[in-house]
Amino acid sequence: MSVIAPQDVSRSRWLQVGWAFMLLGAMLAAANAVLFMSIDAYGHPGIKSRFIATEIAGWMHTLGGAIAVVLGPWQFLSRVRVRWPRVHVWTGRMYLLAVLSGALGGLYFAPTSVGGNPGVIGFGILAVFWLYTGAQAYGSARRRDFVAHRRWMIRNYSLTFAAVTLRLELGLLQLGGLNFDVAFPIVAWSSWVLNWLVAEMWLRRK
Ligand code: HEM
Questions:
Q1: Which one in 1, 90, 115, 170 has a CA-CA gap of 20 to 30 Å to 82?
Q2: Measuring CA to CA, which residue among 170, 60, 171 is closest to residue 109?
């Protein structure tokens, strides 16, 4: 007979609540991405004009990012992995293709970032890390090294989740009185470096 300690039950409740918030944030970021590309008067004009001028790259980035951010949370559910392993594999392939598309689009737009040099470098590094961690996650799954695969996917999704934290942090900094031109270069870094640190701390605890 297996005995489940009360602290394990409450820990798993907290994990479920955290997962639900993660999915909610992901859905809002995905909706923002689709609205940004489809509604004329929606979004920052300096960013929008570039995304519309090269619509293929614009859609590659926003749709790829939107699909990746929404698919990611489902990949962490062990119930899905155990009961329907094929679903996990195919969703994972779609996720990684979406990351590839989003990252190529991100690399295309990073050099002209409205955040100036901090934006160019911050988004540029993020796009390279996004690709690198995705490639490592894929390679380790192919080698059937599932411990490494899980670790690389956690790192990779922490970067995908920058789409959520960027908009949250930008809003908070603007509420705190910073204007967009000051706040945006900051979040070009903080939106993913903090997520990455949280992911590394999580992996260390495990
Ligand atoms: C994680 C790697 C990512 C990188 C490197 C990246 C890069 C960029 C860059 C360079 C821009 C233009 C900003 C500027 O002009 O300064 C941008 C804007 C944008 N990105 Fe990403 N991005 C990433 C993730 C995502 C994801 C996952 C989504 C979708 C959920 C997304 C959706 C958007 C949208 C909608 C915009 C337009 C501006 C806005 O609404 O804030 N990005 N991104």
A1: 1
A2: 60
